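Second attempt. The first submission of Citrate lyase subunit beta had a stray character pasted in from the spreadsheet, which I only caught after the job came back as garbage. Lesson logged: always re-copy from the clean sequence file. Corrected sequence (76 aa) follows.
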Amino acid sequence: PRQIGPVHEIYTPSEKEINKSIRVIKAAEEAKKRGSGVVSLDGKMVDKPIIERAQRALMLAEAAGVYVNEGGDENA
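This time the job returned cleanly.
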């Protein structure tokens, strides 16, 4: 059906969203390595819902075939 393409386009994260999600996940991983419960990125606090949204975006991107998690990290 004709609607499949537009639906995939709407729900597939953009390259910009993917790149930001990767940065959020990396910032969270670095904070965890330091033993810090505080995550910041570009001078802004990153809280748990933001990290979870980044994880979901990367899972959607991977499912859509536009992102490959090469790091083997289950959090991304």
